[in-house]
Write a structure and sequence with these properties.
This protein is mainly β. The protein is built from one helix and 56 strands.
C-alpha cells in the first residue's frame, strides 16, 4: 500500500497487485483507492473533491468526485474506487517497469491554506512470461554427400515461447534414436554422415520454460550403399552359371543389379535385379561359346537412387577344349629295371576336370610315335613297366588330355594339343661291393676303414657313396664319401661287438644302386682300464680328475693315450682328447663343470692299435650363491663373485615373417637358431671374491668364456661388463653374457 497526506485534511491510500497468465501473455492488475480522515476538528470541503485512478500503460481507469463529512465520532475512511485492469506484456513476455503501476490522485480538499491536491503511486512488479516452445514442424533431411546431410525445420512457437536451443536426434539404419547435437536456435543444420547409412532425424526446441516434444521424424535419407564382396561365378552340372555374392548394405531399402560380359568386360549386359535379402542369381542357358564374367552392384530403392561400385567375378568358360597339359620334368636317366611313372597336370580352360588322356612314346626322337590311344581316366599319370626298354634307350614322351568338351580342340573331339615333349634315357643301376670290413672275418681295429668296389654296365663312373654304420637297428654314423679306396669313420667300434655297414653308390648318370649290407664282429685286445677319482674344488669351481693306469697284463695291453668326457644333463663334451700317458698317474682339470648338479665322467684309454676301454665316475656339486667366469686356453683363467648376486636371463629364437596363401596377416616361421643373454650384478668385497682388478682384466682379455652360477646355469658366450668402485673394500660389478657358439 502507498499513502500520502493532504495537509491536515486526510490521507490518500492506494493498494495494487497483479495475477499473470503466461499463455495469454498478460497480467490482471487489481487496485483499490480510498480516502482516510486525518483530523477531527478541521473542516472539510464538502462541495465535492475530484479523484482519478491511472494504470501504467493503460491510462485512467476511474475518476469522479467524492465528499467526506466530518464526523466527530472518530476517524472515518471512504473507498473512492476499485477494480481489475488487464495489461498485456511485450511480445517476448517482458514488461516495462511502469506497466501496471497504479496511481491515485485527489484534488483540493479545502480552501484553507492546509488544503491541497495529492497523488500517490503503488508499484506492481510484473514477471517475464515464458511458455514452452512449440514442437518444430516440417523436418526435412537432404543428402549433400556421403559425409554430409542438411536438416531443416520450422519453429512454431508463441512470441513469448521462442526457443533458446534446438536438439537434433538421429536414427541410423533403423536403430534407436540418439541425440546428435544441441545448437543455438536455428531452422537448419549440416551434420556429418557416412556411406552405407539410412538416416532419420527429429528436432525439439527448448527454452527456460522447458522442452517441446520431438518433432515428427523426417523422411529417411540414404547414403551410397556398400558394394558387395566375394562375387563368385560357378558353372553348374546343368551348364548354367550361378552368381553369388556377400551383401554389405546396412539397410533393407536396396537391391542388387547383376550384369554379365562375354568380351572380358569391354561391354556389359543387364541380367537381373535382385531384391534385398537374396544373394544369388542363376544365369540360365548362357551361351557356351563365350567366356562369361559378371559384376554386381548395390542400388537404393528409395529416392535419390544411389549406386555402389561394381564388383567383378571370376571368369567362367562353359565347355571348351583344355590347354596343353604340363608334363612333369623327366629325369635325364632312369632305372630300366624298375617301373617308371610319367605324370602331368591337366590345364582346363572351362574348369572341367580331366576325363581322358593319350600318351605318345617315341624311341627315335619324335620321328615316329606309339600311342596308348584315348584312355578314359581322371588319373594324370601313366606307368611304364620295368624292363620295357633296353639299356641306353632314350624315350621321348608327350601327352594330351580331354575335359567335358566333346567338340573343338586339336582334333574336333575336344582334345587339347600335345604337351611339350620330354626325354628320358633308361639305364642299368650301378652296383656296390663292400671290400672292407671283410665278410666272415673279425675286424681287429677300433677305427673302421670302409673300402668299396663299383660297377655300372654301360660305363658310367663312380660319383659318391652313402655309408652308414649300424649297431643292431641303431644308426651310429652316416656319411657321404667321394672315394672308393678308403673311408675312415669317426665312430669307434668296440671289441666284442657286432655291427653292420650299409652302402649305396651313385653314378655319373645320377642313378643310385640298391642297398648292400655287410655285417661284421670286432675282436681286438683291450687296453688297461684307468682308475678314476673326481673331486670338486669350490674355490675355483673346477673338478679335478685323478687317473691311475695299471701296467699291462691279465689279457690287457698298455694304455698309450686317454680321453676324458664329461656329461651334464645328457649332453657329452670332451674335457681332454688322446692325452699321452707317460707314467702311472695323471691329473686332468675340468675347468667348466656345472657347479650345481651332476657331472658324469667317462675315461677312455686307448692302445696303440686304437682299442679302447672305458671307466666312469660321478661328482655332484651343490654350489649356492657363487658364480664363475672362465676363459683363455682350456678355460683355465677363472674369476669368481658371490655377494649380492642378481641375475636375469633373456631368450630369443631365430624367426622370419612370411605371407601365406589365404591369410591376411603374415605368419612366423621359427628356425633352429636360439640365443640367450644373461645379465646381472654382484658386489666384490676385498678378500672374498676375485679383486676388481682381476675381474676388469678378465673382461678386457676374454674371448669366448664359460659362465656358471649356483642355479646350475652353464653357458658359453661373450662377456661385457663394468666395475664401479664404492670404497676401498667394495666394488659393484655389472655384467652381461651373450650366448655364442
Amino acid at each position: 500500500m502507498a499513502s500520502v497526506n493532504s495537509g491536515t485534511r486526510g490521507r490518500l491510500d492506494v493498494n495494487a497487485s497483479a495475477t499473470s497468465n503466461a499463455a495469454g501473455n498478460f497480467s490482471d492488475v487489481s487496485w483499490n483507492v480510498q480516502w482516510v480522515e486525518r483530523s477531527l476538528t478541521t473542516a472539510f470541503n464538502n462541495n465535492g473533491v475530484p479523484f482519478s485512478v491511472v494504470v501504467g500503460g493503460i491510462g485512467t481507469v476511474a475518476s469522479g468526485n467524492f465528499t467526506f463529512d466530518w464526523r466527530p465520532s472518530g476517524f472515518q475512511s471512504q473507498q473512492l474506487a476499485s477494480g481489475t485492469t488487464r495489461v498485456f506484456h511485450n511480445s517476448d513476455g517482458s514488461a516495462a517497469s511502469s506497466l501496471g503501476n497504479v496511481t491515485g490522485s485527489v484534488g483540493d480538499t479545502g480552501s484553507d491554506a492546509a488544503g491541497r491536491g495529492v497523488s500517490v503511486t503503488q508499484g506492481v512488479s510484473l514477471p517475464v512470461l515464458k511458455v514452452v516452445p512449440g514442437v518444430p514442424s516440417s523436418v526435412v533431411a537432404t543428402r549433400i554427400s556421403d559425409t554430409s546431410v542438411s536438416v531443416s525445420w520450422s519453429q512454431s512457437s508463441a512470441s513469448n515461447g521462442q526457443p533458446t536451443s534446438n536438439t537434433i536426434r538421429r536414427s541410423v539404419n533403423g536403430g534407436s534414436f540418439a541425440d546428435v547435437v544441441t545448437i543455438s536456435p536455428a531452422t537448419s543444420a549440416t551434420l556429418a554422415a557416412a556411406a552405407n547409412q539410412k538416416l532419420v532425424y527429429g528436432v525439439r526446441a527448448t527454452n527456460t520454460a522447458g522442452a517441446s516434444a520431438f518433432s515428427a521424424s523426417s523422411t529417411a535419407r540414404y547414403t551410397t550403399p556398400a558394394a558387395p564382396s566375394s562375387v563368385v561365378a560357378a558353372k553348374t552340372a546343368a551348364l548354367n552359371i550361378d552368381v553369388s555374392w556377400t551383401p554389405n548394405v546396412a539397410y533393407v531399402e536396396h537391391q542388387h543389379v547383376v550384369e554379365f560380359s562375354t568380351n572380358a568386360g569391354s561391354s556389359w549386359s543387364a541380367l537381373a535385379t535382385v531384391a534385398a535379402g537374396v544373394s544369388t542369381h542363376t544365369h540360365v542357358n548362357p551361351n557356351a561359346a563365350f567366356v562369361h564374367v559378371y559384376r554386381v552392384r548395390a542400388v537404393t530403392t528409395a529416392s535419390p537412387i544411389l549406386s555402389s561400385g561394381n564388383v567383378t567375378s571370376n571368369s567362367v568358360q562353359l565347355l571348351t577344349a583344355p590347354n596343353a597339359p604340363t608334363l612333369a620334368a623327366l629325369p635325364a636317366n632312369a632305372n630300366r629295371q624298375a617301373a617308371f611313372v610319367v605324370t602331368w597336370a591337366h590345364n582346363p580352360v572351362d574348369t572341367t576336370a580331366q576325363t581322358a588322356f593319350e600318351v605318345n612314346f617315341s624311341a627315335n626322337g619324335g620321328s615316329t610315335w606309339t600311342s596308348t590311344g584315348k584312355v578314359t581316366s581322371v588319373v594324370s599319370s601313366r606307368t611304364i613297366a620295368a624292363n620295357t626298354y633296353a639299356a641306353n634307350q632314350s624315350v621321348t614322351v608327350r601327352v594330351r588330355t580331354w575335359g567335358q568338351a566333346t567338340s573343338g580342340g586339336s582334333d574336333g573331339t575336344g582334345a587339347s594339343v600335345y604337351s611339350t615333349s620330354n626325354t628320358v634315357t633308361f639305364k642299368t643301376l650301378p652296383t656296390a661291393t663292400i671290400v672292407s670290413p671283410a665278410s666272415g672275418v673279425n675286424y681287429t681295429e677300433s677305427t673302421l676303414d670302409v673300402q668299396l668296389n663299383f660297377a655300372q654296365a654301360e660305363g658310367a663312373v663312380f660319383v659318391s657313396a652313402q655309408i652308414a654304420l649300424l649297431e643292431g637297428a641303431t644308426v651310429l654314423e652316416s656319411i657321404v664319401s667321394n672315394t672308393l679306396a678308403s673311408t675312415l669313420l669317426d665312430t669307434t667300434v668296440d671289441d666284442g661287438s657286432a655291427y653292420s655297414v650299409q652302402v649305396t653308390v651313385t653314378d655319373s648318370n645320377g642313378l643310385t644302386s640298391t642297398l648292400v649290407t655287410r655285417s661284421f664282429t670286432v675282436a681286438y685286445t683291450l687296453p688297461v682300464t684307468a682308475g678314476v677319482t673326481v673331486e670338486y674344488l669350490p674355490d675355483s669351481g673346477i673338478v679335478q680328475v685323478g687317473l691311475t693306469f695299471p701296467t699291462a697284463g691279465g689279457g690287457r695291453v698298455a694304455a698309450t693315450t686317454v680321453t676324458v668326457f664329461r656329461t651334464i644333463g645328457g649332453v657329452r663334451e670332451t674335457v681332454a682328447s688322446r692325452f699321452p700317458i707317460t707314467g702311472g698317474t695323471l691329473t686332468i682339470l675340468d675347468t667348466t663343470p656345472t657347479i650345481n648338479g651332476v657331472n658324469g665322467y667317462t675315461v677312455r684309454t686307448f692302445s696303440n692299435d686304437g682299442a679302447t676301454a672305458n671307466a666312469t665316475a660321478t661328482v655332484t656339486t651343490n654350489e649356492g650363491d657363487m658364480a664363475f667366469l672362465s676363459s683363455g686356453p682350456g678355460f683355465a683363467e677363472i674369476v669368481k663373485f658371490q655377494s649380492n648376486l642378481r641375475v636375469a636371463a633373456t631368450g630369443a629364437r631365430e624367426q622370419e615373417l612370411v605371407r601365406a596363401a589365404g591369410r591376411v596377416s603374415p605368419i612366423a616361421l621359427f628356425g633352429p637358431a636360439k640365443s640367450l643373454q644373461v645379465s646381472g650384478s654382484a658386489t666384490l668385497f676385498a678378500g672374498d671374491e676375485s679383486t676388481p682388478q682381476d675381474v676388469e682384466a678378465f673382461i678386457r682379455a676374454a674371448g669366448v668364456c664359460c659362465y656358471r652360477d649356483g642355479t646350475g646355469r652353464r653357458m658359453f658366450g661373450i662377456v661385457a661388463g663394468s666395475i664401479e668402485t664404492v670404497s676401498a673394500r667394495q666394488s659393484e660389478l655389472q655384467f652381461t653374457v651373450t650366448e655364442a657358439t
